[in-house]
Predict the structure of Archaeal Type IV pilin N-terminal domain-containing protein.
Amino acid sequence: MKQRSSNKGDDGVSPVIATLLLIALTLIICAIVFAFCTPFINLLEQPLNKSPPEILAIVSVNHYNTNGEKTYESIVTLKNIGKVSLKNTDYKADIYINDIKQYIVIKTLSAPDFISTNHFGIQLLYGTGPTNYYWDPNQNGIFDLNDRTIHPGDLLRIDIINNNASSPSFSKVISRSIKLIE
């Protein structure tokens, strides 16, 4: 048997379909890789040394008792200088003195919930901010730390941390306030 040869180009459409399928498959793989890499790209865009914003700012540190005697009472007043209200039960605080994390346990910023928690290094949490469900802008709150915790010349840092965040630890800090104590 002889095969017929044709001059009409009897190749068919298979190479065109194969090329389109390869292009579609390549685009799908690129989309999947991009979806997996996007969170890491966002992390790389943020400078690692960028400090969190200051939402709850240290306004003052009181060293005097009610009689006016200098006893290093270590009463820290914070003020919400941000533009949003913070739901107190969603946040906790870490306290650093001279860049050393202190064993001061503040598991919630809600004063009513704070009373029943295991807290160490702090006596009381009160003020218009912590007493309410939300700590609204311009409201103050007071951390009454154990006496003699903070002294003049200390560098006090308070980090407010989101209890619900599941991202890396440095991005859980929603507010950082630093003050040199006089």
In short: The chain has a mean pLDDT of 84. Strands lie at 56-64, 70-80, 86-87, 91-97, 100-101, 122-126, 134-135, 140-145, 155-162, 173-180. Residues 149 and 180 are 14 Å apart (CA to CA). The two ends are 106 Å apart (CA to CA).
